[in-house]
Design a protein that fits this description.
The chain is of the alpha+beta class and 152 residues long. Helix content is 36%, strand content 28%. This is Acetyltransferase.
Amino acid sequence: MDTIRIRDAARADIPRLVEWNAAMARETEGKTLDPAVLTRGVTRVFDEPARGFYLVAERNGEPVGCLLVTHEWSDWRDGDFWWIQSVYVAMPARRFGVFRALYAEVERRARVRGDVCGLRLYVETENARAQATYSGLGMQRCHYYMYEALLR
């Protein structure tokens, strides 16, 4: 029987987190990320914990997935939204409930804190499977479009 355990990521996980982030960018957006920039970005989460935290999923004792949680203050709600980002599940572990277990742990931690007003994430507009997964977890599609202006 498969056992999925969720734990806080450790510095020793940085190379794997970098690898998985690069794989996710390739798979979802066809982008090749600069490994040096990505390594600095992942490492900064450990150096500056106020930026967020990574969780790692292990299946039968082997790391198989991760996600990053970052924070966004909402003055309207007097609380933080937790943004789920950098989600990745290794190919052989997909469709075994790895993301569901990661999400459940994020939700549990948010509820325990009490100052988190909601959970949010981005999803590619064409990724129907992911959208169905998120809906199945009780998340709802928002009515906002996302705009960006890249500065570097």
